[in-house]
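About this split. The held-out portion is used to measure sequence recovery: a designer receives only the structure tokens and must propose an amino acid at every position. Recovery is the fraction of positions where the proposal matches the reference. Here is one held-out target exactly as it appears in the evaluation file.
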């Protein structure tokens, strides 16, 4: 069991270094649109206003279209994140998610999914959006590019002395193989994680359970892990002594 835990931590460490994500701390401003796509009019149910309020409360500098853009943003529009709230289909339940995209339309941050069972539209949308900000960890603090540290060199790893409980041979860091893409999958949230359902056969291909690591899940009855990288889902496992990385093709 301890050997499996060591292997899991090695995979997780390699994954973190290989798949470094963009950080919201790289961006100085946030813009919120007048209307979200799933609504019919500007600031319907005051949802856009509430989004601006909650972002400001979490330390973001939110710009209004009526404001004159700051000089630094006029010179570099990539200092700006665009906020969008999307509605996720749910039976008798309201589900919302916040997405923050940069100037290249790349998703930098995707929040946890907020939920509400209230029947009144405005109350349900407000409760679900507040739930988004309660569940999600922003930890936002703008860090200018000229103050960021240069990436450190890869530290040397001191070998662990083998014991009777741990295999004596330490695994070599594997070279990263080509990423394989799986067939279309549909994600369905469960009480302990997610089910990844084959879109053709409607059968569960992977059933995963949450771990202590954010967006990292253990696959039930199978070796390896599934983790979320930005908006993408990836399965990683060790097969025949080699690391296999599989990008999951999620149907949206």
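Reference sequence for scoring:
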């Amino acid at each position: 069991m301890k050997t499996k835990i060591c292997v899991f931590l090695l995979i997780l460490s390699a994954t973190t270094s290989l798949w470094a994500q963009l950080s919201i701390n790289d961006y100085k401003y946030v813009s919120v649109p007048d209307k979200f796509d799933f609504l019919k009019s500007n600031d319907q149910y005051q949802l856009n206003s509430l989004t601006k309020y909650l972002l400001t409360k979490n330390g973001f500098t939110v710009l209004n279209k009526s404001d004159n853009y700051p000089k630094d943003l006029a010179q570099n529009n990539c200092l700006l994140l665009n906020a969008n709230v999307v509605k996720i289909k749910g039976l008798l339940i309201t589900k919302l998610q916040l997405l923050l995209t940069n100037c290249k339309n790349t998703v930098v941050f995707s929040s946890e999914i907020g939920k509400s069972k209230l029947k009144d539209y405005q109350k349900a949308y407000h409760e679900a959006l507040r739930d988004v900000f309660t569940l999600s960890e922003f930890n936002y603090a703008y860090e200018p590019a000229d103050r960021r540290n240069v990436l450190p060199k890869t530290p040397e790893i001191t070998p662990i002395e083998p014991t009777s409980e741990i295999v004596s041979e330490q695994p070599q860091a594997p070279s990263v193989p080509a990423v394989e893409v799986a067939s279309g999958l549909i994600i369905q949230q469960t009480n302990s994680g997610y089910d990844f359902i084959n879109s053709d056969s409607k059968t569960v291909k992977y059933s995963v359970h949450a771990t202590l690591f954010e967006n990292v899940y253990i696959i039930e009855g199978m070796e390896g892990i599934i983790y979320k990288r930005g908006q993408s889902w990836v399965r990683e496992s060790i097969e025949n002594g080699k690391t296999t990385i599989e990008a999951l093709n999620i149907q949206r």
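Annotator remark: The longest strand covers residues 180-189.
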